[in-house]
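Ticket opened by: R.M.
Priority: normal
Category: complex prediction / small molecule

The reporter submitted a protein together with iron/sulfur cluster and asked that the result be attached to this ticket for the collaborator who will pick it up next week. Submitted input follows.
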Amino acid sequence: MNKTGFGFLRLPRLNAEDETSIDFSVVEQMVDRYLELGGTYFDTAYTYLGGASEKGIRRCLTQRYPRERYRLADKLPGWKLTSYEQCRECFNEQLERCGVEWFDVYLIHWLNADNYAVCEKHDQFRFLRELKAEGKAKAIGFSYHDGPELLEEILTRHPEVDYVQLQINYLDWDSPALQARRCYEVAVKHGKKVIVMEPVKGGTLAQLPPEAEACLRALRPADSMAAWAVRFASSLEHVEVMLSGMSTVEQVEDNLRSLEPLSDSEREVLAGVADLLRAETAIPCTACNYCAPNCPMKIAIPQYFALYNDYARKPAEGWKMGHAYQSLARTFGKASACITCRACERNCPQKLPITDHLKSVAKAFE
Ligand code: SF4
Ligand code: SF4
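Result attached by the on-call engineer:
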């Protein structure tokens, strides 16, 4: 079975500024090609694309294909809920939005220290156990964005979960901030199946600086950079599903054909490429956009960071990024408008010092 799961988050848009403006005609083609090539697993969440992701699942998948043709995973936005009863209301809304009667996998979304406290307060794991007993969720678990120590604690308290969804890619594998390798090892020790998110790190690993790309091209000239990242994650023994946030039919085809396991020597080359990338990327933002909706100053955090990374790579072309910045700053708050409330930093899965980086952005572009 192909391990590549289809993440319904980075879908093509008709309007780049509007996350809900999904280009359904392209997504339908992507879904068709994905199923044709042997993919079966689709992943969405209540909060993705302001709710448009779940509706997209209904329109592009569940209304067009029989239930036995695919597996569907969805996630409870536990941190938004203020009572146990709300879990059921939210779940029923998700079934309706997606156009299904049950989910194959149902996860508590985005557990970290803060969200785990909310989750325990409202007994959300009990809710998941009930769903499983009712057959409304065939398997249960959680997606996770914190360190190995907390993961150990959660899995010890909740041996009932089937899956843990982790951010794993070759850049974060030995990252001191994200500790992907240690989180994976904790999940394996507890006998859990692992779902990987961000194998291409929000697209960061699909386009590498020339020196890093040359290292990989020398070994496999025909392979895309994304294919290397996908092979890294899917080669891990206990990974059952590796989610890919695909935006074009070509990316679907590339990701589904790229599953030959990595050799030990290739793994070493990727570790060297990761060192190069860490040295070259000024702000390792994945453009997940978990930060910006909480910003009281409406600062376009991921867009500004992308511009700053371009500027850091090609300072001679900084004027182009400067124009793009000024254009964005007419609609969104400027980087210098940050009031350091740190609401964004609490939500950043990459644990970036966003407020410090915004100072660099302001210095470069204002
Ligand atoms: S710290 Fe700055 S960027 Fe972050 S949420 Fe507050 S105002 Fe927005
Ligand atoms: S700053 Fe953090 S939360 Fe915001 S888009 Fe980048 S990685 Fe995501």
